[in-house]
Amino acid sequence: MIRFEKVSKAYPGQARPALNSLSIDIQKGEFVFLVGQSGSGKSTALKLMLREQRPTTGRVYVAGKEINRLAGWKVPRLRRQVGTIFQDFRLLANKNVAENVAFAMQVTGHSNREIRERVPETLELVGLDGKGDRMPDELSGGEQQRVAVARAFINRPMILIADEPTGNLDPGNTVGIMRLLDRINRSGTTIVMATHDVQMVDQMRKRVIELEHGHLVRDQVQGGYGAQF
Amino acid sequence: MQLRYVFTELRQGLRRNLSMHVAVALTLLVSLTLAGVGLLLREQAQLTEEVWGDELQITFYMCNGANDRNPQCAGAVDDSQKKVITAALDDNRYVDKIEEESQEQAYERLQALDVEGVSGPDPVVKSSDMWESYWVTMTDPHHSAEIIEAVAGLDGIDHVGDVHEVTGPILAAVDGLQSAALVGAIVLVIAALLLVANTIRLAAFARRREIGIMRLVGASTLYIALPFLLESLVVALVGIGLSGIALAAVMYFGVEQRLSSTAVTQWVGWEEFFSSFAIVAILGILLTLVPTLLLTRKYIKV
After folding, report:
1. Any bridge partners for residue B161, and if so which?
2. How confident is the model at residue B2 (pLDDT cuts 50, 70, 90)?
3. Which of A53, A103, A107 to mutate to test the interface with B (most CBs of B within 10 A)?
4. Which of A83, A92, A108 sits opposite B219 (nearest CB)?
5. Which residue in chain A has the smallest CA separation from B220?
6. What is the rounded (10 degree) CA torsion for A157, A162, A168, A170?
7. CA dist A52 to B60, B224, B295, Å?
8. Which of A55, A147, A224, B130 is surrounded by the most beta carbons within 10 Å?
9. What's the predicted TM-score (pTM) here?
10. What is the C-alpha R_g of chain A?
11. Tens-place pLDDT, residues B63-100
């Protein structure tokens, strides 16, 4: 589903490359944690998967497409197959919960009938049924992240990329979000999640890819945050 | 494509950046009106040249024996001198037609004007005081100098009458006004371009979060750019409409009500107005859509 072949990425003006000859292969339906210290290259790897950046050398394949060769006009189609969630939720403050979720369908050209059917269904899936009329500032952090998950999942993407989705949440909400992501993963969606949350990675016992200064230092099935697992 | 979303965004965008849009529309109004006036002046210059150009003739007055201070006049012009003069005129490629007027014909023309001292039993001016002349019609009124240069110095020529000396300043004034209007229009067009660019930048900044989400969920570039393009188009149409009203006012109050009563020349009419306005309208749309397209490519690149 996602394959990096000797991928390096250097940003202009930076002495060290953000990624250095990284090769990883993530299969369909996997749940993968991407761990490492700040500046280890996690965010760059996620940006390459979303084709927000292009590799300096090497090849990146996402959903069977080599992103470096993908024409600009084909990028939106690729992104419809990849959902994204972020630490800061990125909700639109002037839209209510249902509108925020519907937004992802509206701007990708779905009909009103489809939107009316799928929005309540997805809100129920993420545990927000009955809260469609609330504004984002009326929700807790955990609920806001659930809205973001609903928006990322409403187009039923093949891949879900999560960049520190529990970074702003208390332990209770973190568990809730992780259960939700686990459920989505069980439905067949590949999940790649960058995180610093040691406890959560240790508990989940999923595949762990650890980066350090842009290098792959560990790729462990059912691993923990540290190498001792 | 969800057009309802596009139109909602368009409405919100127009409301959010209202003051900037008003500034762009007003700048467009002034710049497009000036450009339109420049185009109308160009049409006017062409019309004036056509009208005056039809009548534009150079008259070569030949020696009548009365002017002994001109070294080219050693008495009245003779047949051999006239042959040299007509040959020089015939050889000139800017000469279209030559008409000869005798002293008697010139005198008759003077008498027809009923000037005092010309008629009566003992006139002050006689036919022998008049000049024989060649009335030369040119193929191109801009080349009178070449014809005069070739003929004026020949023996037998007393002096030259050039209508272009009278019409020249009028045409130069029209040309000057046209240039001033076009320079003003260019300066304001640049101002309009910068204002449009600034507005788009502000609008993109105000909507950066939405644009970011749209890009991530896979909205196409066209879909993201459409509200911006429509916003610019609406402002362009307002600016074009206002400049159309201003130009029509110039035509009605300036040309129809005031100038058309003066028969100095033929004045531009509504046909010229519509052809100039069509160019102004195209210019207005290009002025707003081109920078919008370029900047949206830059700011909302997928």
Report:
1. B59
2. low
3. A107
4. A108
5. A76
6. 80
7. 81, 16, 19
8. A147
9. 0.67
10. 18
11. 888 776 788 888 888 899 999 999 999 988 888 889 89
